[in-house]
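Run log, item B.
One chain of 696 residues. Sequence copied directly from the ordering sheet:
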Amino acid sequence: MSAIKTVPSVSVTYAQTGASTTSNELGMRAMQERAYEKRGEQYLLIKSPPASGKSRALMFIALDKLHNQGMKKAIVIVPEKSIGSSFANEPLSKFGFWADWHVEEKWNLCNAPVSDQGKVKSVGAFLNGEDQVLVCTHATFRFAVDQYGIEAFDESLLAVDEFHHVSADPDNKLGAHLAEFIARDKVHLVAMTGSYFRGDAVPVLMPEDEARFETVTYTYYEQLNGYEHLKALDIGYYFYSGAYADEIMSVLDSHEKTIVHIPNVNSRESTQDKLKEVEHIIEELGEWIGVDEDTGFHLVKTADGRTLRIADLVDDEPKKRDKVSNALKDPEQKNNRDHVDIIIALGMAKEGFDWIWCEHALTVGYRASLTEVVQIIGRATRDAKGKERARFTNLIAEPDASEQMVAESLNDTLKAIAASLLMEQVLAPRFNFKPKNPDSGPEKGFDYGEGGYKEDESNIGYNKDTGQMQIEIKGLAEPKSTEAQRICKEDINEVITAVVQDSETVERGMFDEEMVPEEITQIRVGKIVSEKYPELDAEDQEAVRQHAVAALNLTQQAKKVILEDAGAQTGGGAGGQDGEQVETMNTALIDGVRKFAMDVKELDVDLIDRINPFSEAYAIMSKTMSESRLKEIAAVIAAKKVNLSMEDARDLAKRAIRFKAERGRLPDIISPDPWEKRMAEGVAFLAKKKAEGENA
């Protein structure tokens, strides 16, 4: 067995305030209370992590709309049948609310043993009946709209759960229907998602439709910081060579409650025999001694004499899998920590799956969708008594430049890194960037650290109640339009998603030694922003770009500080000898952001633009791979590189014009500053092409 290659990421420690699990006099937790305050909005988007109570938040809002806002019907629309149970009857009055949530059994169509056509007929009967609440799947709702038309749903509340499944793509029927509902303007819409971005490049709604939604955001940081029991969350990815089944025990600890997601059969990591992979994992864990008759769980005796209960959700045999699946959903076992020890899944146990005891989400192979990664991690971030630490591990095959499939191999690696970078962003406190100017001053509720607010410095304030960081940056562009302000406030992670999913950007950022950081932060991110938000003018596009780069780079620099401090404490780097992981310092990212800001003395846009967002990811990776392997990968990327395209030259020339406006001269091609030199090369390239055209 070859040594496992460990790439540690940040270990984020939270304050355990109990705020996110404590209820108010109406029985609402913090997120639910925040959403309920916006109950009067016609179009409401709730972004909140798994286990924060989105289902119950919807119940509170729906009841108010039915009783106090003139809505006649409330239709809850979920992506799959299993999630329908989240909206079953709830005695809300028992906990202080003024009404109970009640769904007649016949109107929870997720449970109805009838055909799609039969469910559509049921929707029609419901619309014409007296009852007020119905639960159905996205598919049933689409068919019902096709059958009855959008007018049939006038004066109804439409609540769409797991909203990231919807898109503005013309082929996405639900997205098209919602656009029609918004255009008609006769319904109320509540959209809910546990993901802060879509995994593809397609927007959920067109900008003009999305602008009509009021957004309630409850961050991962707020959720985890407000738990009672869970204190730390570790994110890491691990490289291996050979077959994953031979090395999985290097990261799978049988003492931890774990969900193992084996690779898709079409992926590079798969052996193409999923059942044998499960058998192999079971054999590695211990001696198989039989199957529990009541649950269908495998019973495995470990070397130290414990008996593990393992749920196999990979076996396709309906009888077996249904038995196991039903046992996992047994409500009587929800609070029984000993009910099951390890779950092995393929395409299941993600969205809508609730196992509060899960301490480790272990994923083999990359996932094409980053939203899927977030959903998988969400299985481990439930709060439970005695559960102080949770972790997510992505086990991926090491890129091998000798393979025929080198491009695919490298792409998988970069996607895993992208997922890690994005999760670090999601787990960080919420950044509120402000330009530093003579009128700047402290804001109520923010702690500015030792010595308080300083008039002559860029300040960083932290609000422990909201989980927000207020960060002053000299020269920061402010968004002017309402839409640009909304993007900077609510959707910066959408921009960062697009950046880390752009393979050329990540490749050059990590492996192109000649790359000037501003080519990433200004040119490539600028291009991504302009393509993503073409409706914004150039000034607003620049403001969005600056906010996105600041958020990404500050999180990465904070991570660097944390890992350096951890290395200093242990006498080595972030990864120990022979790829062995060492414990990272237990600190929150806020400490890392503050320390970085103190070290640079003054935060300004130019300084932030001069940081390569991917340098820290490369630094960590370089500790796990040999120099020769890294050179091989760099050579593959260099072979694809185009020195300068016409499009990039134009973008450089635009930046050169900004440079001239600020400094009164054009960039100098012999400048010792690499970014100034690069801009000058862009201008020269265009001049050369123009001359060639005139002389042709």
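Observations after the first pass:
- Residues 570-587 have pLDDT under 50 and may be disordered.
- The longest helix spans residues 538-570.
Flagged for discussion on Thursday.
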